[in-house]
Design a protein that fits this description.
The protein is elongated. The termini are far apart. α1 packs across α2, α2 crosses α3 and α3 crosses α4. It has 2 domains: about 80 residues, Winged helix-like DNA-binding domain superfamily/Winged helix DNA-binding domain (Arc Repressor Mutant, subunit A); about 160 residues, Endonuclease, Chain A. Strands 3, 4, 5, 6, 7, 8, 9, 10 and 11 form a 9-stranded mixed β-sheet that branches. A two-stranded antiparallel ribbon has the order 1-2. It is α+β, with helices and mostly antiparallel strands. Helices cover about 45% and strands about 20% of the residues.
């Protein structure tokens, strides 16, 4: 019984709430006196605890003299408690990430991000902070599903350009009102020394292979580069204007020499051409 009570309190119930609910599940239904005798919860407290559990849908009350308390199905109660814990955990992580982003932006113009969760949260923060426009470089459209909602949401409020250096292969989902571009060859130096060597394949450095996945650029002021090092995904966020502005100008140059494409026929994707 003690282990069960600890598990229920870990899910958000108080000890008395856990004892009252567990006893009711054990006996099927009962009056305040019966619950008190089986749980050890003081009888005067059983009444208000039972009313509180009833208000959350965890028990029902059959009014009478005395009242009889009937527990809801454990699976329903546990699902509700687990959902509340998950929601609280998500809100806490987002709040802490926001504090971390704010602190980092004040203290350092460049910082590293590790872990898929943190990468997604930083990308969401970048997109939600856009005030003018957002540019995205995606090396393989088949991988963009994880950021599709983020891009679509941003495109409802601001211009969004998505550059696809490897073409439109794998396009299946809409990206809202974002404009999609496939770059064409341009300046020989950039084509051979930057585009083909950096954007289109792995870069070997000291025995490791670095592969570019995405570049997000918000308003020329924040640049987030998502990459893989020996298959492990990381990211770097840069607010240094010398770097973010240069990255954006390079992306703008590729867009200016790109073909604007539509989505696949009949999918209703809303991938419409627009002027570069």
């Amino acid at each position: 019984m003690d282990d069960l009570i600890r598990s229920l309190t870990a899910l958000g119930l108080t000890e008395y709430e856990a004892r009252v609910y567990a006893v009711l599940v054990g006996i099927g239904e009962g009056s305040a006196r019966q619950v008190h005798e089986a749980s050890g919860v003081p009888r005067p407290r059983v009444y208000d605890i039972a009313e509180g559990l009833a208000g959350r849908g965890f028990i029902t009350v059959r009014r009478g003299n005395p009242h009889v308390y009937i527990p809801a199905e454990p699976a329903v109660v546990i699902h509700h408690l687990k959902s509340a814990v998950d929601a609280a955990a998500t809100a806490a992580v987002q709040g802490l990430d926001a504090l971390s982003l704010d602190a980092r932006s004040k203290n350092s113009p460049i910082w590293y991000v590790q872990g898929e969760w943190s990468i997604r949260r930083h990308a969401e923060s970048l997109a939600s902070g856009v005030t003018r426009d957002l540019a995205v470089v995606c090396l393989d459209y088949r991988e963009i599903g994880e950021f599709a909602r983020l891009i679509a949401d941003a495109s409802r409020e601001h211009p969004v350009s998505v550059l696809l250096p490897n073409g439109k292969r794998g396009i299946r989902k809409p990206l809202g009102d974002a404009s999609l571009y496939v770059p064409k060859p341009f300046c020989t130096f950039f084509q051979e020394n930057i585009f083909e060597k950096i954007y289109c394949g792995p870069i070997p450095v000291d025995g490791s292979a670095f592969l570019l996945d995405y570049i997000f650029i918000a308003d020329d002021r924040v640049c987030m580069i998502v990459y893989r090092e020996d298959g492990v995904r990381n990211a770097v966020v840069i607010t240094l204007p010398f770097i973010s502005c240069v990255q954006r100008q390079f992306v703008n140059r590729m867009i200016a020499n790109a073909d604007c494409i539509d989505g696949p026929p009949g999918d209703g994707a809303g991938l419409r051409p627009s002027s570069p």
